[in-house]
Specification:
8 strands; 8-stranded mixed sheet; 8 helices; 302 residues
Length: 302
């Protein structure tokens, strides 16, 4: 496995998946005890991978692993805690069939009432906001990324192994989401992390990609919100298609530096598409500025 320098080549989505490439791989899924994370764990285990689920919910994590018949393990992990994440990575390597860490899905994330949005009485002293959403969605992903980059480099670069980091974002990484500033900050932030790392991680044969779901029916959206979205005609993407996008990236070692949007099938026949919004096109002045930054950025931090 050798990862070339990043170039802007939009991905053509084909219906076939190379699931045989996942047999025996070691896959870490943060936030894997419920929702999309649990679904990712299930499809990777079904494809023959060994899955390490990291999650704060111990009961749900153990139940998820029990359903996977020995193809997975659970490690209690608060992604905001560096030591918890180290234990998760160490367990993945220790207990996987080839003592490896091949695919890391930085999936853990939350959404909800946002203290940063809430306005208090200006006549009273200011109230320090609870930044839990940023801490889990952005800081937690930063920790996961740092550890993935570390442990990937411990194993040999050969055809049987991979060094694949998949960062979970959201369409909120591309669109304004009024009322949820922390969620917007965190998802734009992890998008920036992918764009940054795709320029350098290839030198270590590490590939970095992003998955950005539209609205999907999972526990992160309660029934009242789903009913509201249904009522105004908002189409939903599916859990199945989100899983296929993850499998696509993980099973195809040629994919690097791309962002796949999980969308309703009215937008894309496979339910996911290359968003193609992370590179500037000819005639855009920012494309010129981007090249200047690429030519100078590393010099500024050496």
């Amino acid at each position: 496995m050798s990862v070339p320098e990043y170039q802007d080549h939009p991905l053509k989505i084909a219906s076939s998946l190379k699931l045989e490439n996942l047999v025996g791989k070691s896959v870490i899924v943060t936030g894997g005890a419920s929702g999309l994370g649990k679904a990712y764990a299930q499809v990777f285990a079904a494809a023959g991978a060994y899955v390490t689920i990291g999650d704060f919910n111990e009961r749900a994590g153990n139940e998820a692993v029990a359903e996977l018949s020995g193809k997975a393990q659970f490690v209690k992990c608060d992604v905001r805690n560096w030591d918890d994440q180290v234990r998760m990575f160490e367990a993945a390597i220790k207990n996987s069939p080839h003592k490896s860490c091949d695919v890391v899905i930085a999936n853990a994330g939350i959404v909800g009432a946002d203290d940063l949005y809430t306005l208090q009485d200006p006549a009273l002293p200011p109230v320090k906001p609870d930044l839990r959403i940023i801490e889990i969605n952005l800081l937690g992903t930063a920790y996961t990324t740092k550890l993935a980059m570390h442990y990937f480099r411990r194993q040999p670069v050969d055809a049987g192994r991979d060094r694949c980091l998949i960062i979970k974002a959201s369409i909120a990484a591309y669109a304004d989401q009024p009322g949820s500033p922390q969620y917007n900050i965190s998802k734009w932030g992890v998008r920036g992390l992918m764009r940054n790392l795709r320029r350098t991680a290839w030198k270590e044969d590490i590939r970095v990609n992003l998955v950005a779901p539209w609205y999907v029916r999972t526990p992160i959206l309660d029934k009242a919100i789903q009913d509201y979205l249904d009522g105004i005609g908002v189409g939903f993407a599916t859990v199945e298609d989100a899983c296929k996008a993850m499998l696509k990236i993980a099973s195809d070692a040629t994919i690097n530096g791309r962002a796949l949007g999980i969308v309703p099938r009215t937008e894309a026949p496979e339910g996911y598409m290359d968003l193609d919004h992370d590179d500037y096109k000819e005639g855009d002045v920012i494309k010129e500025w981007q090249q200047v930054v690429l030519d100078t950025a590393l010099r500024l931090v050496e």
